[in-house]
Amino acid sequence: MTTTPEASGHHAPLAHEPEDLARLFNERANAGDVEGLVALYERDAVLAAGKVVATGHAEIRQFYADLLARKSDFPAAETLPAIRSGDLAMTFARLPNGTISAETARRQADGGWRWLIDQLKIKPLQADKVD
Fold it and tell me: How far apart (Å, rounded) are the C-alpha atoms in residues 41 and 36?
């Protein structure tokens, strides 16, 4: 598992469009690149999985280090079109199991995009139960 940019021998490329974030997440997660995942987030970003699990780079780094230590297969998500307003964008992805993620991304001074808020898991609605 890679935990520093130096260890991976490269600096993580930018997300040139907000929709690139999901693809970069998938690539970096499957490569075990913790620092690459952290680089997808603003310094004070908030990460939630139903509830807030991490705020800021240090907590996000720990969250992904723990996650990658126990999980190594991250299926590609269907990236849905972003909704943009100036330098902000809402991004969405649907995993093969139907779970959806929803994020708020912001364009950075360097032209790249990073997530500010990331809701990792929104479970699909269950069919109404018929009595």
Answer: 10
CA distance 131 to 123: 23
Name the residue with tokens 């620092």. 35
- Domain 5-122 listed as CATH 3.40.50.10420: no
Strands 78-85 and 88-94: antiparallel
Number of residues that make up the chain: 131
Is a pLDDT exceeding 60 seen at residue 91? yes
Contacts of 36 (CB under 8 A, 6+ apart): 2, 5, 8, 12, 24, 27, 28
Average of per-residue pLDDT values in the chain: 87
Top-confidence residue, 42 or 73: 42
Say if residue 3's pLDDT is above 50.
no
Q: What ranges do the domains of the chain cover?
A: 5-122
Alpha-carbon span 18 to 121, nearest angstrom? 18
**Predicted local confidence at residue 11, as pLDDT:** 56
